[in-house]
Automatic annotation (TrEMBL):
Residues 2-122 form the Reverse transcriptase Ty1/copia-type domain. Pfam families: RVT_2. This is Reverse transcriptase Ty1/copia-type domain-containing protein. Signal peptide: none annotated.
């Protein structure tokens, strides 16, 4: 496989850059930018990366300015200070809005003073649509999953487990106590 020239078949070329459409391009880009962040000791800025689009935020204005200045030296960038649309989604920046919503969800499901866990789901947990545990209130379950689904817009760390409980339960007549326990655990995740 590749390109050979008569008399120079033993020679090969090594790409210094990964081409955009190659399967390994996203991994190469992530490795490159991850190394850059580590080399420049960026630890206090939240950076969201999607392909070649970066969103970064902070709570320290000086850190934000420095990050923007330093990263602009390495990568060609266009800076938009207040994000209004990203990947087709409208973004509204409001103080404490999602935190207020998360607090209301915890209060609604009487989980505000719960004991926190450091994983959203038990690692050994096996869920099945054929679970034969005690049946729970479907309306309560749907309300809980709907609330969690809304929270996934800012809590990317719970997307997978919310999908797991939502998808498997879709095929059940009613959620079982195992599903309710698993779903309540997501609320306890810190």
């Amino acid at each position: 496989m590749g390109f050979a020239m008569k008399g120079q078949e033993e020679k090969v070329l090594k790409f210094k850059k990964v081409l955009h459409d190659l399967k390994q391009a996203p991994r190469a880009w992530n490795s490159h930018i991850d190394k850059y962040f580590q080399d420049n000791e960026f630890v206090l800025v939240l950076v969201f990366l999607h392909v070649d689009d970066l969103i970064f935020t902070r709570n320290n204005p000086n850190l934000f300015e420095n990050f923007n200045k330093v990263i602009s030296c390495e990568f060609k960038m266009t800076s938009i200070w207040f994000l209004s649309y990203y990947l087709g989604l409208e973004v509204k920046q409001m103080n404490n809005d999602i935190f207020g919503y998360a607090k209301k969800v915890l209060e609604k499901f009487k989980m505000f003073d719960c004991n926190l866990v450091n994983t959203p789901m038990e690692g050994s947990l096996k869920l099945s649509k054929f679970d034969i545990g005690e049946k729970e209130d479907l309306t309560l379950f749907k309300s809980l999953v709907g609330s969690l689904r809304y929270l996934t817009s800012t809590r990317l760390d719970i997307i997978y487990v919310v999908d797991v409980v939502d998808v498997v339960c879709y095929f059940m007549e009613a959620p079982t106590s195992t599903y309710m326990k698993t779903t309540y655990r997501i609320l306890r995740f810190d």
